[in-house]
């Protein structure tokens, strides 16, 4: 997971949108619980925003230079797949 240390070089902001209680957002909630501290420790200046809204489908957003944003729908993905999607978003900004 060496890519996590260079995350702030390729991405300007990360946002996770999820529902507080829906089963569809459960893997996203677990991903945040298990990985937020590690990502912030490696990238202390990177905004890592968690947005909770009732009934929303889980999504992962990455903002790059010049305000360009990319979104990935996390519905039906496991924690490992969410981690892989974040890695892909990070590499897309390099």
Automatic annotation (TrEMBL):
One of its GO terms (cellular component) is mitochondrial inner membrane. Disulfide bonds join 19-53. The keyword Hydrolase does not apply. Its main location: mitochondrion. Keywords: Disulfide bond, Electron transport, Membrane, Mitochondrion, Mitochondrion inner membrane, Respiratory chain, Transport. The keyword Ribosomal protein does not apply. It is found in: Mitochondrion inner membrane. It is a peripheral membrane protein. SMART domains: L51_S25_CI-B8 (SM00916). InterPro entries: NADH_Ub_cplx-1_asu_su-2 (IPR016464), Ribosomal_mL43/mS25/NADH_DH (IPR007741), Thioredoxin-like_sf (IPR036249). It comes from the Eukaryota. Residues 20-93 form the Ribosomal protein/NADH dehydrogenase domain. Belongs to the complex I NDUFA2 subunit family. Accessory subunit of the mitochondrial membrane respiratory chain NADH dehydrogenase (Complex I), that is believed not to be involved in catalysis. Complex I functions in the transfer of electrons from NADH to the respiratory chain. The immediate electron acceptor for the enzyme is believed to be ubiquinone. This is Ribosomal protein/NADH dehydrogenase domain-containing protein.
